[in-house]
Amino acid sequence: QVKLMESGGGSVQAGGSLKLSCAASGSKDSKYCMGWFRQAPGKEREVVATIDDYGGTSYADRLQGRFTISQDNPRNTLTLQMNNLEPEDTAMYYCAAAGGWAGANLCTSSPREDLFAYWGQGTQVTVSS
């Protein structure tokens, strides 16, 4: 069982920065892949970034260069550094974890939402213009 708890959300003006953190407990086998997703009001949840067991990363195309995902070595803490924020980044941000074969092999090549079995409660990010 994996438990995830996000923190670091808040309100910021456009152009500002925020750093989200996710505290992750549970076995390493269930956390081969860690990721951040977000859901804006009235929209479907979408992948923001993922990171695999070797430190390989993937990003949503339009976010690369502004967002950086990282994790500590035991995979107990996942972070998302968000720079040059835009009002369109306003959303609830979720931390997620995936284990097993899919988590180990599809983390960065095919980071689909259904790969992730474990989810946090989310942290709100609001960017004003």
Would you mind describing this structure in some detail?
The chain has 129 residues and is mainly β. It has one helix at residues 100-106; strands at 3-7, 10-13, 18-25, 33-39, 46-51, 57-59, 67-71, 77-82, 91-98, 118-119, 123-128. The strands form 2 sheets. Strands 2, 4, 5, 6, 9, 10 and 11 form a 7-stranded mixed sheet that branches. Strands 1-3-8-7 form a 4-stranded antiparallel sheet, with no helix packed on it. Strand 5 and strand 6 (57-59) form a beta hairpin.
Architecture blueprint of SSEs:
Blueprint: E1 3-7, E2 10-13, E3 18-25, E4 33-39, E5 46-51, E6 57-59, E7 67-71, E8 77-82, E9 91-98, H1 100-106, E10 118-119, E11 123-128
Parallel strand pairs: 2-11
Antiparallel strand pairs: 1-3, 3-8, 4-5, 4-9, 5-6, 7-8, 9-10, 9-11
Key phrases:
single chain; 129 residues; mainly beta; 7-stranded mixed β-sheet; 4-stranded antiparallel β-sheet; 1 helix; globular
Terminal Cα span: 40 Å
Class by alpha and beta content: mainly beta
> How would you sum up the global shape?
globular
Number of helices: 1
Low-confidence stretches: none
Backbone CA Rg? 14 Å
Number of strands: 11
Share of helix, binned: under 10%
Order of helices and strands: EEEEEEEEEHEE
Mean pLDDT across the residues is 94
- Share of residues in strands: over 45%
Largest sheet, in brief, is: 7 strands, mixed
Q: What's this entry about, in short?
A:
The protein is mainly β and 129 residues long.
